[in-house]
Amino acid sequence: MIGPSPGFSKLLVCDDDTPYRQRLARSLRGQGFVVFEADSAASGIEAAREYSPDAIVVDMRMPGESGLWFVQELRKFLPAARVLVLTGFGSISTALDAIRLGATNYLTKPATLGKILEAFFPEKGLPATSAELPSLAEVEQEYVNRVLEEHEGNVSQAAKALGVHRRSLQRKLRREP
User: What is d(CA 176, CA 41) in angstroms, rounded to the nearest whole number?
Assistant: First the structure.
C-alpha cells in the first residue's frame, strides 16, 4: 500500500456520487492523507486552487463540466499534480483522451483503495490496474443504479427506461448488497 510520503499527502476527491466520494475520502483519511472533497468539476477547480493538492481523483461524468474538462483546466495551474480519472463507463477512447489531457492514470469503477493509490504511481512498475475491467455484473449494477438515480428513485420509471418489467427490477435491487 502506498501511504503519505513527502510531496504526496494532500488529495482531492471530486465526484458527484456523494456516498462513493465520502467513502473514498474516509478511506484515504484512514491511510493518513489530508483529503478535500468536491462534488463537481467547477467546485473541484476551486478546491484545487485553494488547497493545491498533490493528487486528485476525479470522476469522468458529473453534472455540468466533465472530468476531462477538469483535467484540462487543472493542468493550467497545477501541472505537477497527479490526476486519476475514475469512471463507471470506461472506454479506450476516453482513457486515451484523459491521458492526452494530462491525467496520470485512468481506472473504471469500482476500484479498490489499493488500486487507486497504485494508479498514482504507474512508473513504479506496480501491477497494471488500468487494464483491469469490471465484471459484467458490476457494470450492470452501476448502470442500473445510475438510471434509478436519474429517475429520482422511481422504480417504475427506471424499469421503463431500462426496458424491463418493474417487478424484475425490484427483484434485482433486492439481491444487490
Answer: 30
Q: Does the reported pTM lie above 0.85?
A: no
The residue type of 76 is K
Residue 175's pLDDT band, with cuts at 50, 70 and 90, is: confident
User: Long-range contacts for 134-138 (Cβ within 8 Å, ≥24 apart)?
Assistant: 134/90, 134/108, 134/109, 134/110, 138/110
Whose cell is 456516498? That residue is: 19
Tell me whether strands 82-87 and 105-108 are parallel, antiparallel or unpaired: parallel
Alpha-carbon distance of 92 to 46, in angstroms, equals 29
Q: Which of 26, 59, 29 is nearest to 43 (CA)?
A: 59
Higher pLDDT, 8 or 68: 68
Mean predicted confidence (pLDDT) in 75-89 = 87
DSSP letter for each residue of the chain: ----BTTB-EEEEE-S-HHHHHHHHHHHHHTT-EEEEESSHHHHHHHHHHH--SEEEEES--SSS-HHHHHHHHHHH-TTSEEEEEESS--HHHHHHHHHHT-SEEEESS--HHHHHHHT-GGGT----TT----HHHHHHHHHHHHHHHTTT-HHHHHHHHTS-HHHHHHHHHH--
